[in-house]
Amino acid sequence: MLRKVIKFGGSSVGSTEAIKKVTEIVASMRGEERPLAIVVSAFEKITDQLISAAKVAASGDVAYKDISQTIVDRHRLVADFFFNCERRTQILNALNSTLAELEGILYGIYLVREASLKTLDMVMSFGERCSAFLISEIFKDNAIQADYLDARILVRTDERFSKAKVDVDTTYENIRNYFESRQGLQVVTGFIGATLRGDTTTLGRGGSDYSASIFGAALGVEEIEIWTDVDGVMTADPRKVEKAFSIDQMTYEEAMELSHFGAKVIYPPTMQPALAAHIPLRIKNTFNAEFPGTLISEKNIVSQQVVKGVSAIDEISLLRIEGSGMVGVPGVSHRLFGALARKEVSVILITQASSEHSICIAVLPEFELIAREAIEAEFALEIQAGQIDEVVVEGNLSIVAAVGENMRHSPGIAGRLFQALGKNGVNIVAIAQGSSELNISAVVSKKDQAKALNVIHEAFFLSDKKRLNLFLVGPGKVGSKLLEQMAEQEGAMLSEQCLEIRLIGVADSNKMLFVPKGVAFANWKKDLNSSTEAMDITQFVKKMRAANLPRSVFVDCTADDNIAAAYKDILSASIAVVTPNKKANSRSWSEYKALKNAAIKSNTKFYYEANVGAGLPVISTLRDLLLSGDEVIKIEAVLSGTLSFIFNAFTGERGFTDVVKEARDKGYTEPDPRDDLSGMDVARKILILAREIGIALELSDVEVENLVPAECRNCSTVEEFFGELSQRESIFDDRLARAKQRGEKLCYIASLANGRATVLLRSIGPEHPFYSLAVGDNVISFLTKRYCERPLVVRGPGAGTDVTAAGVLADIIRLSD
Question: 58, 33, 43, 39: which is closest to 11 by C-alpha?
Fold first, then answer.
């Protein structure tokens, strides 16, 4: 026989449907499975309403009656739902007697304009008293032998109202004596007790859980069950960490650490009686009764997970005491914590430098001023003498903590935690870790709390799975193809690379769209078209920064200089940037360096492989050469797939204008082919390669041969341009003829050597490595100290949305490493 005490929380009795579920759970427990007692909380939100009614009454506002009536109606609604006419009259008579007592107390508060802690405890007791009474009667109507038990007749406490301390010996004896003569299931009021004089008290935060633990320990049960609205203790708060999941088993110490740091499923006082009596606690979900939940016990079952959970305290204040007068002086800490204790200030976190020059403590914000005044009063003489500085207070902070028994003696845990935070731009203000190694705590900005929880959770629980949060601007040719490729590869990336990419934001030149849980790749166009928010890059960046999501990636598939100008701010916010847009890296040298420094300073990636060779590994190859200690002597390259196509197709059989038109019709050129023929695109690419080597060139330093005849450059339309170009084809015919006379062909080549960059239409012969270049291909030749006899050559398709989008996608995937 498994002797149990069960507790149902406020959410478990928060509605008629929930109460019905509780009844079904208890009814399903037959014979020996039936618990000795069921402890219940007040109906959900009733305690808050009782406090509100008392405070409103104390302010002299008759509106307390409206709140009181809401409370009455809520309980009568339950009676109306569960009982037939005859039973309902009987139940409501008893219930009305209790609620009339509440009305009288509230009226008394209204008259005297005061609600002491003692009075508030009395008012709050009505929540549990009414719920326990109603549930015991509902059980009876469902053939469950049950008695209503007001815990105040058994649970004896001191007179510290609102946080009463239980007289354990007296209470345990009372409980044992009472249960010796009782056969039926006892439905017990949680949260409340009474002093030796009979004054009603409450047991503080998590008081109903505490009541269950007290009854279980007194009766020596084998297990205490706490039923709530989640599947046990979670690895993190599921409201903040979407991928949190329930923990099968954990120790009392782990549970207490997590609960101290904000895990609200269970509270530390709850576990104390159970821990002392060596009784396991099980956390279960009323709305998923078949789920086994979490077992909390003394046993630490060996698990591969070194961390059991990640939790946080939402808001704290950090007080820093420092000064040379603290170094080597005995008793400073004693005086500090003594001063705080006298003011009843609880210290959440402590960290002290080994130099003894400073001590940091964390307190709840409501104690910030009291703590500061207490410390400055204690050390007034030292502060006056300049030996200790005035107390520095920093607010709007949170504490995040990783907890787990298996962290002990597991090397690298702290490193993994801090690396995860650092890679995502979360600054750590203070750190604390006990010698037990059960908990590592970090103080971070409050705005970074959710991000910190998610990245730590991912680092320890989802290390085999990675998620990138994508913000894409420019779903044109390349951008839409990229989204199409991601849609096609979504399943493969998840199954083969354990990578999930979520499209959080997307924008074209007119509209922008943000969806916190992600836009389906298949629906982005429809969803964006239905958006009513106008595109503004400043607002887009603000929204992206405000989302503050871990592993955020900004993808720019435009050729817009204004978008490129925003990269620095984006990188500074620890958001990675991936782009085929060459504008950022070809701005002034000082702006280029500022961009690179922003990425380094924020420890954020800036990838632009598609800047130079579309999908070809040009930048990465060059970086590998430099990282290995090689030295680049010369770079020669065909860096425009468009111009590669044009001059391969221009053999003299057709006019130059017809060849350019064909390139445009096939989608090789920009909408205005002059953008390609001007050579500026190639100039930007060779400039980027020069800068990768470390050569401080400006775009104006690149010698560029503009292939657009001067007379064609100012044409107002593309068709007008083609008309003018057709009149000047002899320019290209003559150059082609001269090349053919020498057995050569025309090729538009970028070159970098001796610090000089050129982009020229050249005539090359069969001996040149670019002579046999296929139509539309790019080729980059690296002549280095190691590759001096034969250059290292990267060659392949250098134009087209498919290969460019693939290059961008490769950069995005690289970010997940």
Answer: 43
Residue in 740, 758, 738, 737 with CA at minimum distance from that of residue 748: 758
**CB neighbours of 704 closer than 8 A, spacing ≥ 6?**
678, 679, 680, 682, 683, 758, 759
Q: Is 447 exposed, middle or buried (0-12, 13-18, 19+ CB in 10 A)?
A: middle
8 Å CB contact between 718 and 672:
yes
Hey, is 553 helix, strand or coil?
Answer: strand
The DSSP code sequence of 369-391 is HHHHHHHHHHTHHHHHTTSSPPP
685 annotated active-site: yes
**Residue 400: partners with Cβ closer than 8 Å, 6 or more residues away:** 261, 310, 311, 312, 441, 442, 444, 449, 452, 453, 456
State residue 404 phi and psi, 5-degree precision: 175, 135
Identify the pLDDT of residue 262: 57
End-to-end CA distance of the chain: 53
pLDDT tens for residues 359-387?
Answer: 999 999 999 999 999 999 999 999 999 99
Q: How many residues does the structure list for the chain?
A: 817
* Distance from C-alpha of 335 to C-alpha of 378, rounded to nearest angstrom: 7
- From the list 685, 740, 745, 785, the catalytic residue is 685
Query: Which burial class, exposed, middle or buried, applies to 512 when counting CB atoms under 10 A from its CB (0-12, 13-18, 19+)?
Result: buried
Instruction: Give the predicted TM-score (pTM) of the model.
Output: 0.76
Q: With residue 599 as reference, give the H or E element that holds it.
A: helix 589-601
Q: What is the pLDDT of residue 256?
A: 81
Instruction: Determine the Cα–Cα distance for residues 455 and 443; give it in Å rounded to an integer.
Output: 15
**360: nearest Cα among 381, 329, 403, 389:** 389
pLDDT above 80 for 187: yes
Q: Which residues pair with 281 in a beta bridge?
A: 224, 296
Among 3, 40, 1, 5, which residue's Cα sits nearest to residue 225?
5
Q: Are 685 and 639 in contact (CB under 8 A)?
A: yes
Give backbone dihedrals phi and psi of 76, rounded to 5 degrees, phi first: -65, -35
Helical spans, DSSP H, in 727-799: 730-741
d(CA 106, CA 119): 9
User: Is beta strand 309-322 parallel, antiparallel or unpaired with respect to 349-352?
Assistant: unpaired
